[in-house]
Design goal:
The strands form 7 sheets. Strands 1, 2, 4, 5, 7, 10, 11 and 12 form an 8-stranded mixed beta sheet that branches. A 5-stranded antiparallel beta sheet has the order 23-22-18-25-24. The chain starts with a helix and ends with a strand. By secondary structure, it is an alpha+beta fold. A hairpin with a 4-residue loop joins strand 10 and strand 11.
Length: 492
């Protein structure tokens, strides 16, 4: 185009316009005709030149584009198999609409908002105490230690051994984080050996020893709770139900500090939820991830979703713990754990069980566990039962007096002990424990022995874990499972 304009300008300079004069000579007329022909010729030359310019520019652009395309193809050919997923993800992100991106951002913000930090007090071996005589920490990736305004880094081959009088404590609280991954506490043992933890390990020195607090996002915490509370081999829908229950329970506990002096919400024992006693499992972590942020709500409020091992065919209510029914605990009702084919757990070992204990043995246990010596037992009577037929008041009479025990937990503890065997309905036997398997039982004296016939394992309030698993086997999803065990609730 520029060339054409230059040519035209040149033409106007060489051939300026002339006015029309009818009296011009024939020579002038001939010259005008010649000029006209030259103009026409030059116009055509200019158009041809302009066309040529356009063609050249087009070919240049095409060649450049082809070259660029060739470069992109070459790059694509160099993408390694392990990078293909990343490349696809970039393409997917580029193809997303603004609406989709905004929605995704909102969801990410929600997940972040629903994933606050929880502070868990880590107890000693056997969950027997809250203070440790010394702490040993390690991490394959290395560790970063902060105390006061100081910071130190350690390589992966280092193990930190910290005593209560360590100089770091002069600065106050000590916090240890892994450079990447988890931190192992080598000085304690759990069901699967030395446990490893996500998040940060916080240490505080006290007169009694070191207090350990694990601070981490609640969703990461749940990945350590679910496999410790429910076998990872259970059905996925049962694991999802357990995940929602565990999350709801955690959220309620995070409303206050169980250990305000250490700003810890809970500990890692059965007093709350067992945490990191079993190694994290893919199935359990998947269940946590796929229910991320979901909780059980009753009348719009997140509720404490109690759970236990096995039902006797029924669940009970908070009356078993001495709490009167009310508006806030109405979701915990006595449910029949059965489907079209009867009780879901009727074929399971702990569905029914029995104990035969010598009168002398049981006399000693009752005296020891209640703190009152009533002499040799003569009778034990369940004077009051709660929903689901659980014993909530028991009277034991001996030749030196009597004792009345209230609530299912205290009754189970009064009769608990390792001095006798428990026979399950499948014929297998196990040693007795600190607690009788459940408060759903009958008891009578036969000669010089007491015979206890019972069913279920655990306190009986809320969700039966084996019941949830059996429901999942029969095609029930986690929301249907939760709806059976908790009345009038929503999962959101």
């Amino acid at each position: 185009m520029a060339v054409f304009l230059i040519v035209c300008a040149r033409f106007n300079r060489v051939y300026p316009k002339r006015g029309v004069d009818l009296k011009r000579s024939n020579r002038s007329i001939k010259m005008k005709k010649r000029q006209k022909k030259n103009k026409e010729r030059l116009f055509y030359y200019g158009m041809a030149l302009l066309t040529a310019v356009f063609v050249v520019v087009g070919l240049t652009t095409a060649i450049k584009g082809a070259a660029e395309e060739s470069v992109e193809v070459s790059r694509a050919e160099k993408v390694k198999p392990e990078d293909e997923e990343k490349a696809d993800k970039v393409k997917e992100d580029n193809d997303k609409t603004d609406e989709e991106k905004n929605k995704e951002t909102d969801q990410n913000e929600k997940i972040t908002a629903d994933n606050p930090d929880i502070r868990v007090l880590i107890m000693t071996n056997g969950f027997s105490d809250i203070t440790h005589s010394q702490v040993s920490l390690s991490s394959e990736s290395g560790m970063v230690v902060t105390y006061g305004e100081n910071k130190k880094e350690y390589k992966g081959e280092n193990t930190l051994k910290i005593a209560p009088d360590h100089k770091w404590f002069d600065e106050g609280t000590v916090r240890v984080g892994a450079k990447k991954g988890k931190i192992k506490i080598e000085s304690i043992k759990r069901g699967d050996g030395q446990p490893s933890y996500d998040g940060v390990i916080e240490l505080r020195s006290t007169a009694e020893g070191i207090v350990i607090i694990n601070e981490l996002p609640v969703e990461s915490y749940l990945c350590g709770v679910v496999p410790s509370e429910m076998p990872a081999s259970y059905e996925m829908e049962a694991l999802k139900a357990q995940s929602v229950c565990a999350r709801s329970y955690a959220y309620r506990q995070m409303e206050k500090y169980a250990y305000p002096e250490y700003e810890a919400h809970i500990n890692d024992s059965t007093s709350y939820q067992v945490y990191n006693n079993s190694k994290q499992a893919k199935a359990s972590s998947k269940a946590v991830k796929e229910t991320a942020g979901q909780t059980v709500r009753y009348k719009g409020e997140i509720v404490s979703t109690y759970f236990y091992s096995t039902s006797c065919g029924k669940t009970t209510t908070m009356e078993a713990w001495g709490t009167k029914p009310g508006k806030k605990n109405g979701y915990l009702y006595s449910a029949e754990v059965k489907g079209e084919n009867g009780d879901y757990e009727k074929e399971l070992p702990w569905y029914r069980w029995s104990v035969t204990a010598p009168a002398e043995t049981l006399s000693n246990l009752v005296g020891l566990n209640t703190g009152k010596d009533i002499g040799r037992l003569e009778s034990i009577e369940i004077t009051k039962r709660g929903p689901g037929d659980v014993a909530i008041v028991m009277k034991a009479v001996g030749d030196k007096g009597s004792v009345t025990v209230k609530t299912e937990n205290k009754i189970r503890r009064a009769l608990g002990g390792s001095e006798y065997k428990i026979r399950r309905q499948d014929g297998s036997e196990t040693n007795g424990r600190d607690l009788l398997p459940s408060a759903f039982f009958t008891i009578e004296k036969k000669g010089d022995e007491f015979v206890i016939q019972g069913g279920g394992f655990g306190h009986g309030i809320g969700m039966s874990q084996t019941g949830a698993n059996e429901m999942a086997k029969q095609g029930k999803n986690y929301k249907e499972i939760l709806a059976l065990f908790y009345k009038d609730i929503t999962v959101e």
